Amino acid sequence: MLNTLSGRFLILTVIFVMLAEILIFVPSIARYREDYLLLRLERAQIASLALLADDMIDMELEEELLKNAGVYNVVLRRDEMRQLILSSPIPEPISATYDMRGASAGVLIKDAVMQLLDSQNRVVRVIGAPVQDAGLLIEVTMDTEELRMSMIDYGVRILALSAVISVVTAFLLFLAVRAILVRPIKGVVGYMQTYAAAPEDARSLIKPQAGVTELREAEEALLALQTELTASLKQRERLAQLGSAVAKVSHDLRNILTSAQLFTDRIESSEDPLVRRLAPKLVNSITRAVHLCESTLAFGKAEEPAPTLTRFALSEMVADVIASERLAVEEFDLSFGEDIPAGLTVRADPEQMYRVVSNLVRNARQAIVASGQPGEIAVSATENDDAWLITVRDTGPGLPPKAQEHLYQPFQGGIRKGGSGLGLAISQELVRGHGGMLTLSETGTTGTTFEICLPKGEVAVI
């Protein structure tokens, strides 16, 4: 009970209502004391009317009037010259005088608190203004014991009533909180538990129906989260199935390509000049395809294999990439440029870097061809004391917003319509395996630039 939201709300409500009652208790008890003293003054004024009617009254009647008024004596000043007095013996000296005429709230509260704290019976003088303007002032002398006991009795009744009010209020609020907050929250928790048990079941999605704005927003946010998570789970399942299929296809394709390598010797021995010129490129392409299939199989088991670092001439590798891409656009107005220093060598895995540069150049070529406009692709490279920098720049239409948002996410960051987005995802993973970075430097209507940074220091294989 105490650990529940409604239970704690019930306890806090009781506490806060009691605190509020305590805060108004002191002003209330001060007001009660003021009313008590004013009533004594009023009764004393009525008692003095008997003396006003008859200047000579016997002692018994005077004592009875004072007893009914609850005072020891009465002084009623009618004018500057005349006073009416009822008196009886005072048991002890007057200890304090209270003037009720125009007393401030602070003074009344202070006097009331002091009265409650003082348990000793004392004789005090009280001065006030007569009712109905029946004189200049009225003054009585009285003891404080009856006043204090009356104040205590009033305070006890006030506190008891406050306790009852707080309990009733808290119980009503308890019921309201359960109906308005706790029950809808439990409903949301139930939907979450049901969804966790079977996230693929569309019936487990929450149906927003809360009347409270904040709870409604929470339900709608949960629905959006469940919908997105369900879609992600379905996509992961499809990717797992696709990965299994790709692994099987890559296995069989590797065997086919391995058989094709056996025929390259006869092709290389051909006397046809065109065949002799294209045969090495065909052999290299088949070899790379075999390596790619083997890498795909390795990726299906874990991830891309660690790079085999060797020194190689970057210009030769870039030339092979551009030569392959030229064959794909012989009839399209697309030019290629290379700006690689002749003696520049890099330390990296040549096959993996070929795949990275090839993916970037191919993406640029496909984007320019899809736009239907002439274009240019340029590959350049520089080096400094810390790293080698390879830049692939094109004059294409730029990356669409969706591709920029999911740039390196497989099956989401496709640059062209119908693309899978695997090229950039694979390229990023390969560059990271070298301890480097693949970054999008700029993109827009004037073109796109990617930059590969390969460190010269120790390679942290990721």
UniProtKB/TrEMBL annotation:
InterPro entries: HATPase_C_sf, HATPase_dom, His_kinase_dom, HisK_dim/P_dom, HisK_dim/P_sf, Sig_transdc_His_kin-like_C. It comes from the Bacteria. The keyword Phosphoprotein applies. SMART domains: HATPase_c, HisKA. SUPFAM superfamilies: ATPase domain of HSP90 chaperone/DNA topoisomerase II/histidine kinase (SSF55874), Homodimeric domain of signal transducing histidine kinase (SSF47384). It is an enzyme of class 2 (transferase). Keywords: ATP-binding, Kinase, Membrane, Nucleotide-binding, Phosphoprotein, Transferase, Transmembrane, Transmembrane helix, Two-component regulatory system. The chain crosses the membrane at residues 6-30, 158-181. Residues 248-458 form the Histidine kinase domain. GO terms for molecular function: kinase activity. This is histidine kinase. It comes from Shimia sagamensis.
